[in-house]
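We append the chain.
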Amino acid sequence: MSMENQRSAAKPERDRPWLIRTYAGHSSASASNALYRQNLAKGQTGLSVAFDLPTQTGYDSDHVLARGEVGKVGVPVSHLGDMMTLFDSIPLDQMNTSMTINAPAAWLLSLYIAVAEKQGTPRDSLQGTTQNDIIKEYLSRGTYIFPPAPSLKLITDVAAFTYREVPKWNPMNVCSYHLQEAGATAEQELAYALATAIAVLDAVKASGQVPEEDFAKVVGRISFFVNAGIRFVTEICKMRAFCELWDEITRDRYGISDEKYRRFRYGVQVNSLGLTEQQPENNVYRILIEMLSVVLSKNARARAVQLPAWNEALGLPRPWDQQWSLRLQQIMAYETDLLEYDDLFDGNPAIERKVGLLKDGAREELAKIDAMGGAIAAVDLGYMKQELVRSNARRLADIETGLTKVIGVNAYTETEASPLTSGEKSILTVDDMAEQEQIEKLKEWRAGRDQAAVARSLADLEAAAREDRNIMESSIACAHAGVTTGEWSETLRQVFGEYRAPTGITSMIVTGDEEDIKKLRSRVDEVSEKLGERMKMLVGKPGLDGHSNGAEQIAVKAGDAGIDVLYDGIRWTPDELVRNAIDEGAHVIGLSILSGSHVPLVREVVNGLRAHGAGHIPVVVGGIIPDADMLVLRQMGVSAVYTPKDYQLVRVISEIVDLVDRKSTEHPAPRNIEGKPEGAGTAIY
């Protein structure tokens, strides 16, 4: 036998690689479709759809709250026509599609099924996942619409419908990813995600929609979407703990005897929170290390992996940047010998010890949540949100003091200029005309449909919701009739109402009595004495961006410094924030926007202040803001701009206090504008 034949005969059998995805979508359905087909041609094996914020929060592209947000962080999908364009020339019976959609998950799944039916593809052949995790939206990402109880009903409806009609579909991706981004420790990520899964399965069981003999099938379709951070060994152990705890819960709590239904199935995106604006080329190494933690351990290996691009801390990545991350996965899956071996960590005493500690910590936290009445009660009480804010404050304080080292940020900051970030097109920007074009197409769609059919389908949807029937078939009928995302959501808003989640901001002192915070408190006292009242800062999130971590930490640090903080969470119109700031007598306004819509939204706030004679109130802005946009913001009157590189929050707050001292003491703020919106009060601590 030749040496080559001997080599081939000795080569071990390889496992199938995980699904290789890229989280993508922007501007329009047609532009996103072109990107998907391009990525599939490069070897991507599944799709992961990013929707824009209006779609995620159930608004059409021409709603007032959608202004500036259309197509920015994902693709706008307002109706069946958009969904058909999005998947044009992509046969859905051959595709595994993940959709990062939560509050309107039932609607986007209905549109997807309607597209398949238009393609002649039977429902039972569809494969994929709707994230559909509302509980984590209340805690971290903020794209919720309805209160917890009806949200849980919608998740239940999707789960009960799909196990019968779309049996290869994962009706819910319990998402711990954003919990870690919001500051969760490994134990909290384990506990809060598992508590969410328990709440959903308990609700499905109590609904009576699934016969007892079929319940195991529903359990077997619940999947998870997790975060892999930079603490490599901890992340490996966390995933092994997830697998063991889920096996334990499904066996002991739900009596599932078949091991295949107890398997912990998960996808992962590695941690975008740890990507740095400074020395962004280092992010390539971070992404690799974080991916290794979810692929090395065979018994806890991810079923699907999507990696961020190295420059996501700077802005929207280009196709080349996404390709770089795609190639990283392919090299690991196809060039290395990783998939030829059994689990590399079985029997390792250090790993087993750490897994045991994580499981103990998670069980302890689960017991606390269970004693409160479960995950829904813990959301309503504000417990989980407050704990995440507290954990995140500690994490940031450790970076600020240097206890946690971040290379290029607070350690080894000396650097050469990067050729990767030079040039005008180092990041992708969304054309401002994309929003107007989407709105025009939406108007054409509305004008061209059968209005009577739309009215009938919406009436049936409302009746199903009011009568506590499963809404999925009614929603699919709405999709075929031409109903829009905003109309579907508004119908259910009328039935279920809307919700404003607890902010998690309390008067807790987090940063202790270090010398710098003591000096800052004294400075705040000094400026407050000049003002003749305690200094007030309104922290606001205009538009639909629900990533509130930065706003929360600014609010916590400002409160720690002795400033009266006016903060009432996410999703306010610029006009509401202007009126609130004036009525409450704010001395400074801090706006946090991470969706890329900072220019139009900040312009509306600044112009609104001037229109009400309050242009003297200084405005500062934080977000992922390119240098060119910083200049635009400065020119429109913004006093200061902060980006993720400004991690030293004591310095940030100190500069804001100095700003108030310079600009605000001579101008008492006008108060009591008529027509202050109901519910626009503030949480002051």
User: Anything to note?
Assistant: Residues 669-685 have pLDDT under 50 and may be disordered.
